[in-house]
Specification:
The complex is a heteropentamer.
Chain B (H helix, E strand, L loop, with lengths): L1 H28 L16 H10 L6 H13 L13 H36 L4 H15 L2 H15 L18 H38 L2 H8 L4 H38 L5 H10 L3 H29 L7
Helix pairs in contact in B: 1-11, 4-5, 4-7, 4-9, 4-11, 5-7, 6-7, 6-9, 7-9, 8-9, 9-10, 9-11, 10-11
Chain D lengths: L1 H10 L7 H11 L1 H18 L1 H8 L32 H37 L1 H16 L2 H11 L6 H29 L2 H8 L4 H38 L10 H5 L5 H6 L1 H29 L6
Chain E lengths: L12 E12 L2 E13 L4 E5 L6 H9 L7 E10 L2 E2 L5 H7 L4 E4 L13 H12 L4 H14 L5 H4 L9 H13 L5 E5 L7 H18 L2 E5 L3 H7 L2 E6 L2 E7 H6 L4 H9 L49 E4 L2 E3 L23
Helix pairs in contact in E: 3-4, 3-6, 4-6, 6-7
The chains are: A alpha/beta, B mainly alpha, C alpha+beta, D mainly alpha, E alpha/beta.
Bound molecules: adenosine-5'-triphosphate (2 copies) and magnesium ion (2 copies).
């Protein structure tokens, strides 16, 4: 079976596979403190009532502008933070309220790849230690064996064996990102949340990492939550895409549907704003007015109505909910 | 900002109360009292001492003593110095102008010197001049203030005879006359330089490094791209940024200088708060000691507040409310 | 009476090389090596430094000669029984504010000091006046023993006849004209005491910079003759700067600490003058414990009860060497607890000299049973137990104290007594010594005495300040007798005999090891003249002068 | 073909330098810091070997003994730095004094660093309530007038505990506030780095996150701060001793050796007594500062990237 | 240098064989090596390339804003309006900077001085070059802010940079850059730090201003999409050298240099589904170990030949609308030396 066949096969079977992760009404508010006594004087509603599910083996992409709550969502889902409200079901088990050693145990199954390849590796650790640490956190292992295993893993992500003895500062961004991926893979997790894994990388390196992630998915039957602000990257990677705006999921659709027929005005603007690297295909662009409002006091009603070119009366009063307007295509907009 | 200041001032109260309790307990825990040093058959009798102990309330239960002290304290009655027999308030008031003068002069010297040297070094890093200034500053930083004071007296007062070695003013100068103020200046200069030397050195280096760091900032490149001359960039763009941390030090200096004056004033026999403090320790003058300690604590807290307020004033990015 | 071999050359010595003709005018700079506390009233001051300042602008009604015998100054007196005294004041004596001095100012002083609100330490000097106690307790409106005859004449009756009633009596007037309206409780803090004090001396205070300097100027209406100087400026300078200040002609005269002596001596422009002081140092033994309630010695401590041990320890000390090393010749070895300048001091020929003699010391220790039984190089006590001389000394910032104490301990070690030095912070030290703290076994001390030669307060068994807890009824009786007017009358010779007798006893008993008495040292710039010192202090500043 | 050889050379497997090794290299290359280190090592060695050196260097090696016959001797061939007012050899005392000054400085520094790091790391890492409580307490310690506390505590504990340790404990207990704040802010900053999040996500316990990930990255700051504090502690010790509130007089320390400058005869007349300690204190502080600067340079995380 | 293209007007800026080096451990290493190009009036020239390939250094060289004492122009000429400016003193450059040539930078967050008001910072550039009163300058800056589409301009001038969002700050930077109607604007990655929707706004704005003010722009970016959107001509840089130069349409329709080709294939496209993206293995060599002979891309190039390591290709016209520096094209061989085919020995 060629890779291509394999992928086709995977996509065909996706619909039939069960949900690996299910998010229900997830909210994450950061308290804003002020005054001498550090009272909470407000909330940053970084993630505000988001629900979706990811099937085993699927890649769900999350896009949105900076500050819209993508990372927060990712981190909350992995329980690196306590959600304010909502439920997170992993393989049907509720992990929302886990804590302490139970949570630690559960973490085996979901890992993260981080955005900043420079800040996400401990500069005082040898690469070998960085990658073997997760394993040693859960199992007692023979040192020699483990080293061999790590070296194999290093090779798998495209790094030389010698990297084992080096320190992160000796690697380029792309290589560091590979180390980060190897660390995430070390435990053979079921879910990987990749939080803008390529946004700090050059185009040429970006493609290497994207390719690697795709290969690994097939090889290890991984499930990805892939976060990025670059729609084309997300589209390249994902089976389905969620578009976030100001803490809200405004549209969720399959890769193809979203590009062919974006329903939400924000998604439309987002797609049209992407510079087209082909002068022959220059298109009409929807240029939005103004900036993203502060999540600390988001506009009432639809969060997008302040910038929306087709805003209506109702948009400023009522917050639209995510509804399935086509099969597999959900959108939160009063137009539908 | 006013609201902020008031809130902060109110916030100091618990801290001050806590400190007052500790100060009081410590004073009470100290062996001996102000009368144990007074044993001298020329002047005193054991009966007198016993009587004075009773009269001064040293025999009351501790909570009562504390309560009496603290209630008096908040009403501005700091008690009576057991040594000088006058209200501590008056005693402190008498010394404060000297210390203030010393402190302000030291600050002035510190800041003026630091600015001159720091800006020079910052503009021309790694040159001969910069290295010379850095060398000088390292030595200044390394000499503890008491060593510096001893050296300064030895060299400038005795060997070179440039400065007086003691006192705050020449008694012969007529108060209010020019000569009087010159004399005060002359007396305060050496201790002020010693007192300010360490800060001068560290501020100079700080300013230098900050200027160098700021001169690498993007906004400097922007200013250059606008065609702004280098000189103006240094004197306006960079300096304005480098001043911010330096100005906020002012708040901390405020208390630190008075604390630092303890040694300097003592060595230079400069009659101020610091000297008073040390003497009140040696002579077990608890009312004075406690009042001064509270004063220093308050100044420290106040200095912190001042630093924060100054920060808000000089740095537009900080908003206090 | 000062029968020291070299005493005469020093007592009554005159300062300054320009002892020629007194000159009019000029300013003298007077140095103080510690800041005064600012209580510039004889009734209120607490430390000697303040008194040094007071002496420059005020004087006592009675003065003392070089034998510490009272002499008339403003007041002259008559008495028949040492109980009732009749005093007559000079007329025309002016306070600095222009008011005339009368006996009422003295009465005012008595009443102030005897007032219940009085917070100074001088009540003992008034207590003996008849009716003072009643006045103090509020039972009487006035002191019954005081009878004002006229503005210039006053009779004072004491509660009983004592030989030292006069020397003990408070002899400074207080200016009623300025302090009369001030409540006694507020007096010590009043500006009349602190910033604008007045007196009757040859100089008046112009200005005071607290803790730093005082400016005096000539008082034109001074009662007792001409005043030479125009001004005296008193400056406070730090100890460490004294030598430099003298060298630079920044100060004209100052009291020196012995340690500065050798530094100042070579200076061309400065002359050193010494005169006998009233302070002596000793090493005390704790022989018992004092009970404050009953005012008696309640318990005897065994460790140092052996007189032979104490004497042996005395012989072990090379006091001359010690004094030379730490006082640079500005102190003399003594064998008695009475300053040599006092008229009642016993001549050395009558006392055991305790010349340094380690061999004798060792022999005496052997004889007393202190032998080294376990060959550790140190002696054990007669019971064969470890014997350690625990020697306590007060500690201040001055490092010399530690060396001094260490050296004394070394002397003991040299005769085979294991010694330990403990330095105790000074405030704590006197508390511990006074309270007979168990950790104090032998201790270093110093006493200064006043003009009154009576040592009772420091030596009798019922006195708190008898720190060694020396308990010898025979000796106490001698002290009582010497004050008993029935026994001695007004005969000074008779008194002296009793005191000498007493000194012989304590010289032999050695409840403390007498070490040395200090000389007072003054440094004078050579341009200063007319200054004289004796054991009673300096002559009147009126006679001082400077040449340019 | 120069380029191809370099390529092959680069590919040669070698165990590479850890950030610490890089820092050490940089430090060793820093001349001033190296000279300073040598000086400090020398001073430390001399202090440590004082009991052995003293009999060689001085005819009066016992510093506890007063030598009444050898007081105030000017420097000569026998007493290289002269003797002091108690007839004790100044050079010998200088060595012994170093023991005390360095011991006090070092122990107090250790205490300050340990306490400060503990409080700062806990407050910074856990935040919230723990942070608030710890930081209020730190404020309290910081706001306390240091000198009073030291003097008073030192006086109170006098005689109860060995006074040297009293001093160390008192200084240490009162000086950690600054370190705690620094460590806290550093931890807060470092905590923002994703590798801490990564450590959590790979299942490290909070304890492990602090000790294995956070502290190693904060430690360079702590080390640099530690050197500077070491200098400060030596100054504090000598200043207190100078004022008579520190080490008891019988034990020589640089500070109380210097305190003899307070005496009227010494400052002017016997400079050999006070100048050596003054100079050695200054040189020591200077060296420590240079070492601190060197370490700061060498450990600068920017140079790792 | 071969002039190519159809536009016959004289260039506004002509860079010839520019070499800029950095002092590292006492030695100079060239970060820009022999770069030559023209910018014609009213032209938008895009510069693309991977991070570290020398784009910023090149633009800073033109402005003479290289870090003092570290960076230095070591050779070549920079002609602006016929004047050779590369040797100008700082003082003389100050008359040009901000007036004739201005520049905006990547980081709108840090490029503004945090302690001065927006108004002050815009006025500064005006007052640097024109004799105006403060008041006039203030009016002008308000007008400029309005021009770049900032609402509440009158109020914004009194505010500080931290009170503005990233997009607004970049607009302020643009306002500052066009305050004196410069003839050339150098924009060093002006939109990289911004969100896509904001980026679109800013690009729109720049394009509009360019047309209104008749200025030329050198637009530096690593985003080929941005180049395609607004540039007329493109320079592709690799490791300090220009490897390809072409009009935008030509570059995208038929890239000549393998590097450009790979770069374009590496970007995921919205409208195409490729399972695997093209990649360029290896890294841009650092300035310290830059190969001195041969093609600098050779060790990463899938089409590399043996000669690529020994023969340094020259930027030359490979067809009439295209310049490239690659030995695949005979024109790139030095001295017009024809390539001697040595079989298909690829590395
Ligand atoms: N620890 C925090 N405390 C308070 N607010 C926070 C915190 N972390 C993030 N936020 C705020 O929450 C909002 C969402 O942040 P988040 O990092 O999830 O956005 P993002 O979509 O990942 O943005 P980016 O693309 O820049 O990474 C932002 O407004 C941010 O300022
Ligand atoms: N101050 C400097 N000191 C030393 N080398 C430098 C300095 N600035 C830049 N360089 C080097 O010059 C080369 C080119 O850097 P430049 O900043 O021009 O790259 P760039 O193409 O603008 O990259 P980016 O897309 O990251 O901005 C790089 O290899 C860099 O390491
Ligand atoms: Mg994010
Ligand atoms: Mg760049």
């Amino acid at each position: 079976m060629t890779t291509r066949d394999f992928i086709q096969d995977r996509i065909d079977h996706l619909d039939k596979r069960e949900n690996l992760l299910e998010i229900r009404n997830l909210k994450k508010y950061y308290p804003v403190t002020g005054g001498f006594f550090k009272r909470t004087i407000g909330n940053v509603k970084a993630v505000d009532d988001v629900s979706f599910a990811i099937r085993r083996g699927e890649t769900l992409g999350l896009v949105g502008e900076s500050g819209c709550g993508k990372s927060t969502a990712g981190r909350t889902i992995l329980r690196l933070m306590k959600p304010t409200e909502g439920e997170i079901l992993f393989e049907g088990k509720d992990i929302t309220r886990l804590s302490g050693s139970k949570l630690q145990k559960a973490r085996r199954d979901f890992q993260m790849v981080f955005q900043d390849p420079y800040a996400s590796l401990n500069p005082t650790q040898m690469v070998g230690d960085i990658i073997s640490e997760p394993i040693l956190n859960y199992e007692k292992r023979n040192k020699k064996e483990l080293e061999q295993e790590i070296k194999t893993l290093l090779k798998r992500v495209g790094l030389p064996e010698e990297a084992y003895y080096k320190y992160a500062h000796e690697f380029s961004g792309g290589q560091r990102q590979r180390i980060g991926i190897a660390r995430a893979l070390a435990l053979h997790p079921k879910l990987i949340v990749a939080d803008e894994p390529v946004s700090a990388l050059d185009v040429s390196v970006q493609s290497q990492v994207l390719n690697l992630l795709k290969e690994l998915q097939i090889e290890f039957d991984l499930t990805y939550l892939f976060i990025a602000h670059d729609l084309s990257v997300v589209k390249h990677m994902s089976d389905r895409i969620g578009v976030m705006y100001l803490g809200n999921l405004v549209e969720l659709a399959s890769n193809k549907d979203l590009y062919k027929e974006p329903l939400h005005p924000y998604t439309q603007a987002l797609i049209s704003a992407i510079p087209e690297p082909n002068p022959a295909k220059r298109k009409e662009r929807i240029v939005l007015k103004g900036d993203v409002p502060s999540p600390q006091n988001p506009p009432a009603g639809c969060p997008f109505h302040t910038r929306c070119p087709v805003a209506m009366e109702v948009c400023s009063q009522q917050k639209p909910v995510l509804v399935e307007v086509r099969p597999g295509h959900q959108v939160a907009c009063h137009l539908y | 900002m006013l609201k902020y200041s008031i809130r902060r001032l109110l916030g100091m109260i618990p801290m001050l109360i806590l400190i007052s309790i500790v100060v009081f307990s410590l004073a009470k825990l100290m062996p001996g009292d102000s009368l144990s040093g007074e044993i001298d058959p020329l002047n005193t009798s054991p009966e007198y001492i016993a009587e004075m102990r009773e009269k001064l309330g040293y025999n009351d239960p501790l909570p009562v003593q504390y309560f009496n002290w603290i209630t008096g304290f908040v009403q501005g009655d700091f008690g009576k110095s057991t040594r000088f027999k006058i209200p501590v308030f008056d005693l402190i008031l008498e010394k404060v102008p000297n210390t203030l003068f010393l402190g302000v002069t030291a600050l002035l010297i510190t800041y003026v010197m630091a600015f001159i040297m720091g800006m020079y070094s910052g503009r021309r890093p790694y040159t001969l001049g910069d290295n010379a200034i850095a060398g000088f500053n390292y030595v200044m930083l390394a000499i503890p203030s008491f060593v510096a004071a001893v050296f300064a007296i030895y060299i400038f007062a005795f060997q070179l005879n440039w400065f007086p070695f003691a006192g705050s003013v020449d008694i012969l100068a007529q108060e209010g006359s020019l000569e009087y103020y010159l004399s005060r200046m002359h007396h305060v200069l050496l201790p002020a330089i010693v007192l300010g030397a360490m800060s001068t050195a560290s501020y100079t280096q700080f300013l230098r490094n900050d200027i160098i760091e700021n001169s690498r900032k993007d906004f400097v490149r922007t200013a250059r791209a606008k065609g702004t001359p280098m000189k103006k960039i240094y004197n306006v763009h960079i300096l304005r940024n480098s001043i911010i941390p330096l100005v906020t030090f002012l708040g901390f200096d405020f208390a630190a200088l008075i604390g630092g004056a303890i040694i300097t004033e003592t060595i230079f026999t400069y009659p101020g708060i610091g000297q008073l403090f040390l003497e009140s320790v040696t002579s077990r003058d608890y009312p004075t000691l406690m009042a001064l300690t509270m004063l220093l604590s308050f100044l420290t807290l106040f200095g912190n507040l001042l630093a924060d307020i100054l920060y808000g004033v000089v740095d537009p990015r900080i908003r206090l409310d | 009476a000062c029968g020291d071999d070299d005493g005469s050359s020093e007592s009554g010595s005159e300062g300054g090389s320009s002892d020629g003709e007194p000159q009019e005018g000029g300013t003298l700079v007077y140095g103080l090596d510690a800041p005064p506390e600012g209580l510039f009233s004889s009734a209120f001051y607490g430390i000697a430094t303040d008194f040094e300042v007071i002496e420059l602008f005020d004087e006592a009604l009675i003065s003392y000669n070089e034998n510490l015998e009272p002499e008339p100054n403003v007041a002259s007196w008559e008495t028949e029984d040492n109980k009732v005294f009749n005093f007559t004041f000079e007329e025309g004596v002016k306070w600095h504010n222009g008011e005339e001095l009368t006996v009422n100012d003295w009465v005012f002083a008595f009443e102030t000091i005897a007032d219940p609100d009085y917070d100074g330490p001088r009540y003992t000097n008034v207590q003996t006046i008849e009716g003072a106690e009643a006045y103090r307790s509020g039972d009487a409106d006035s002191i019954s023993g005081i009878e004002v005859v006229s503005d210039y004449e006053i009779n004072i009756t004491f509660d009983e006849a004592r030989v030292n009633n006069l020397t003990n009596l408070w002899a400074y007037p207080l200016p009623e004209s300025v302090l009369g309206d001030v409540p006694v409780a507020e007096m010590s803090a009043s500006e009349w005491v602190r910033s604008t004090p007045i007196g009757i001396g040859p100089f008046k205070v112009d200005k005071i910079v607290p803790g730093e300097s005082v400016e005096f100027s000539k008082f034109d209406e001074y009662w007792n003759g001409d005043v030479n100087l125009d001004k005296i400026v008193l400056r406070v300078i730090d100890n460490s700067s004294v030598v430099g200040a003298l060298q630079n002609n920044d100060i004209d005269m100052i009291s020196l600490q012995p340690v500065s002596g050798p530094e100042v001596e070579p200076l061309e422009n400065v002359e050193i003058v010494t005169y006998p002081g009233l302070t002596y140092y000793y090493v005390g033994f704790k022989l018992g414990k004092f009970d404050n309630e009953s005012q008696t010695i309640s318990e005897e401590l065994p460790k140092y009860q052996s007189k032979e041990l104490r004497q042996a320890m005395m012989y072990a000390l090379n006091r001359q060497e010690w004094v030379d090393a730490f006082f640079f010749g500005y102190a003399d070895v003594v064998n008695k607890p009475v300053p040599s300048s006092h008229w009642n001091s016993a001549d050395d020929s009558e006392l055991i000299q305790y010349e340094y003699d380690p061999e004798k010391s060792k022999q005496m220790l052997e004889d007393a049973g202190y032998v080294d039984t376990n060959d550790d190089g140190f002696r054990e006590d007669p019971n064969g137990d470890e014997f350690v001389v625990k020697f306590s000394h007060y500690a201040t910032g001055n490092p010399t104290f530690e060396s001094r104490a260490q050296q004394i301990a070394q002397y003991f070690e040299e005769v085979g007594l294991r010694s330990e030095v403990e330095m105790v912070e000074v405030n704590l030290y006197y508390d511990m010594v006074e309270k007979d703290d168990a950790s104090i076994e032998t201790f270093f001390g110093g006493w200064g005495t006043g003009t009154d030669p009576d040592p009772s307060g420091l030596w009798k068994a019922d006195q708190l300040w008898n720190y060694p807890r020396y308990n010898n009824p025979e000796a106490d009786q001698l002290l009582d007798d010497a004050l008993d007017i029935e026994i001695v009358g007004t005969d000074q010779e008779k008194r002296k005999e009793l005191y000498v007798e007493w000194q012989k006893i304590v010289n032999e008993d050695l409840p403390m090891l007498y070490i040395a008495e200090l000389k007072e040292i003054k440094a004078l710039n050579t341009r200063v003249g007319g200054v004289e010192y004796d054991v009673s202090g300096q002559n009147s500043p009126a006679e001082w002068f400077v040449t340019e | 073909m120069a380029s191809s050889t370099t390529i092959t050379q680069q590919k040669k497997p070698e165990r590479s330098l850890s950030p610490w090794q890089i820092a050490r290299r940089k430090f060793v290359r820093n001349k001033l810091a190296m000279i300073s280190s040598c000086f400090i090592v020398l001073v430390t060695l001399m202090s440590l070997s004082a009991p052995f050196l003293a009999p060689v260097l001085s005819p009066l090696p016992d510093i506890s003994k007063v030598n009444i016959g050898a007081m105030n001797i000017e420097p000569n061939s026998e007493h290289l730095l002269g003797t002091d007012k108690s007839g004790r050899d100044v050079l010998t005392r200088l060595f012994y004094g170093g023991r005390i000054s360095l011991l006090v400085g070092f122990s107090a520094t250790l205490m300050v660093i340990v306490l400060g790091t503990l409080v700062g790391a806990l407050a910074g890492f856990f935040g919230g309530m723990i942070d608030s409580i710890l930081m209020r307490f730190t404020d309290f310690v910081l706001n306390f007038p240091f000198l009073v506390f030291v003097i008073v505590l030192n006086t109170i504990l006098y005689g109860i505990v060995d006074s040297l340790w009293v001093l160390i404990i008192v200084i240490g207990a009162l000086s950690w506030g600054g370190v705690a704040r620094l460590v806290r802010s550093k931890v807060l900053a470092e905590k923002e780095n994703e590798y801490i999040l990564a450590a959590l996500s790979i299942g490290c316990s909070p304890f492990k996150v602090i000790t294995k990930h956070l502290l190693p990255n904060v430690i360079s700051t702590i080390i640099v701060q530690g050197t500077l504090i070491f200098a400060t502690m030596i100054v504090i010790e000598s200043a207190l001793s100078y004022l008579g509130f520190g080490v008891p007089q019988a034990t020589p320390s640089w500070g109380n050796m210097l305190s003899s400058a307070n005496e009227p005869d010494v400052l002017q007349g016997k400079p050999w007594i006070w100048m050596p300690p003054a100079i050695i204190i200054t040189l020591t502080i200077l060296s420590i500062n240079f070492i601190g600067e060197g370490l700061k340079d060498a450990l600068n995380p920017k140079s790792l990237r | 240098m071969t002039a190519y293209g159809i536009n016959e007007s004289t260039p506004l800026l002509r860079v010839k064989n520019l070499q800029t080096g950095f002092k590292i451990d006492g030695d100079y290493y060239n970060a820009v090596e022999g770069v030559s190009f023209d910018v014609l009036p009213k032209q938008i020239v895009g510069v693309v390339g991977e991070s570290g390939c020398g784009k910023s250094v090149m633009s800073l060289s033109i402005m003479q804003l290289l870090p003092n004492g570290v960076g230095k122009i070591r050779g070549g000429e920079i002609e602006f309006e016929g004047q050779e400016i590369s040797k100008f003193s700082d003082k003389k450059m100050n008359d040009i900077r901000g007036k004739d040539i201005s520049m905006i930078f990547q980081e709108p967050m840090t490029s503004l001085n945090p302690v001065f008001t927006i108004g002050y910072q815009i006025e500064e550039v005006i007052l640097n070059h024109e004799k105006l009163t403060k008041k006039e300058a203030r009016l002008r800056s308000v007008a400029l802010l309005k021009q770049v589409g900032i609402p509440r301009a009158e109020q914004i001038v009194t505010e500080y940079p931290h009170q503005l969002s990233g997009g607004m700050r970049q607009r302020v930077m643009i306002a500052m850059a066009i305050a004196c109607q410069p003839k050339l604007l150098i924009a060093d990655e002006p939109t990289t730090a911004l969100d896509v929707t904001v980026q679109a706004q800013i690009l729109e704005l720049m394009k509009g201003i360019q047309e209104a003010n008749d200025m030329s722009i050198i637009l530096i970016t690593h985003d080929l999409g941005v180049v395609a959107e607004i540039c007329d001509e493109v320079l592709v840089m690799y490791a300090g050298k220009i490897v390809e130069r072409a009009f935008v349409d030509d570059l995208f329709s038929s890239p000549k240099h393998p590097y450009t080709e790979l770069l374009m294939k590496a970007i995921p496209k919205m409208d195409e589904d490729v399972e695997e993206l093209a990649t360029i293995e290896g890294l841009v060599p650092s300035v310290i170990n830059m190969p001195q002979v041969g093609c600098r891309f050779a060790n990463r190039c899938p089409k590399a030949m043996a000669e690529c390591l020994t023969v340094t290709p020259q930027l030359a016209k490979v067809d009439n609308r295209h310049e490239a520096a690659c030995l695949l094209y005979e024109e790139s061989w030095p001295n017009g030396e024809k390539r001697e085919r040595q079989g298909a020995a690829t590395l």
